[in-house]
Amino acid sequence: MADYHEMWAGLGLDLKTHDMVLEIVGKAYQDIFLSQKNRPKGMWYFDFVMSEIHGLRIKELMDAKEQGRKIIGTFCVFVPEEIVLAVDAVCIGLCAGAELGFEEAEKYLPRNTCSLIKSAFGFKLAKVCPYIESTDLIVGENTCDGKKKAYESYKDIVGNLYVMDLPQMKSTEGRALLKAEYKKFAQKLEEISGKKITVESLKKGIEIANNKRKAINRMAALRSTDPTPISGLDALLANQVFFYDDPVRFTGSVNAICDELEARNREGMGVAAKGTPRILLSGCPMAVPNWKVPYIIETSNAVIVGEEMCTGERGTQNLVNANGNTVDELINGIVDRYFQIDCAVFTPNPSRLEHIKKMVKEYKADGVLHYGLQFCQPYQMESKIVEKELEKAGIPTLLIETDYSQEDAGQLKTRIEAFVERIKK
Ligand code: BJ8
């Protein structure tokens, strides 16, 4: 990697801590990803992206800013990338997956806050995230109570927060609220970018976002074979990079990997032996560099074949219908797509149960591991409903609750190994 210290200093990062973070993440990446056997060759792209995670991509964002483009940071898959793209802005996911700056974060948040929220504060307060520092606007959303209340303090820390309200029920009123919020968001984007959203620009945004989803869904579908042609770790990585890479380049790279996976499937070539127990992951999102649980699973003689998560199919399923003739009609298409996202913050949330069962069938999973972050009420509460429903359908289910620390790694490994024994054919 080139020397980017000057750029990082310009962004106000704490260079010493930041260097340390890069070293830790680089080492973890090497141990977890590069040690895997038989990876698809096309994964070189993601190795490169990860090696430049705070380098080249940030430089690209800086260049975009110089050209007058705006950088929009997000924390949730409910923020419609299509509308961001329609004002030629760049959409970047800001969720972090490491225990960093938690002590500082706890000056603003109760200790019993989930790691995802704490890391959003921690990364900002420890001055280690060039993505946060590059943003012109950060979009928060009223989803779980934790996020909703946390944004009240986050607003003062970052100084450029915009909060979007979201419905909690899949009702007619809920859909109307979502549409009103998306229109308000579109207006805000027009205001900060100085660009008007047109039918053409919105159609283009929809096309780019749809293509990105099609590519990642194509990769997901190719994992239904036994042996599966790509590891869960590598597929998760693609789903994580989905949030901050250039969308067009990302689409091309994922499609190239899919061509390779198709060839592997034709030849019966996989990353694990045929008959290896297949696990579907379900639950809270996993942001970079949160690889703890997938790593434990895939080093316990099992393979992950799908992710029912926002860093996975919950976030990528369904496309936007681009057939509208006016901006309003196109926004309707966008609302229709996003309103189907079955996050546990919705009540009731039956479509998530159906989606998990459908994924088990499609990807021929032998069991489901429900991943709940400690102190995440929506997913922890819903996990009991998920477990009951799946076990009733004869699908073995393991509920785990964890955080970003490594302290429970040994205990998790023991439980996961026992689960793998249970689901072995
Ligand atoms: S659509 S899953 S990205 S809200 S883990 S912060 S729920 S207490 S992340 Fe999410 Fe949007 Fe839903 Fe997806 Fe709260 Fe739970 Fe923490 Fe969470």
Describe the fold and architecture.
With 425 residues, the chain is of the alpha/beta class. It has one domain (5-423). Helix content is 54%, strand content 10%. It has helices at residues 5-10, 15-34, 44-51, 56-66, 81-86, 102-105, 115-125, 130-134, 145-158, 172-193, 199-221, 232-241, 247-267, 292-298, 313-316, 327-338, 350-362, 377-392, 409-423, and strands at residues 71-74, 90-93, 137-141, 161-164, 278-283, 303-308, 367-373, 397-402. A four-stranded parallel beta sheet has the order 2-1-3-4, with helices on both faces. Helix 7 (115-125) packs parallel to helix 9 (145-158) and helix 11 runs parallel beside helix 13. The radius of gyration is 21 Å and the shape is globular. The mean pLDDT is 97.
The percentage of residues in β strands lies in 5-15%
Gross morphology is: globular
Query: Largest sheet, if any?
Result: 4 strands, parallel
Computed Rg: 21 Å
Helix content: 40-55%
The helix-and-strand class reads alpha/beta
Poorly predicted ranges = none
Which sequence of SSEs, written as H and E, runs from N to C? Answer: HHHHEHEHHHEHEHHHHEHEHHHEHEH
Beta strand count: 8
Ions, cofactors and other bound molecules? Double cubane cluster
**Tally of DSSP helical segments:** 19
The chain-level mean pLDDT equals 97
**Span of the ends, CA to CA:** 45 Å
Strand order of the largest sheet: 2-1-3-4
Q: What count of structural domains?
A: 1
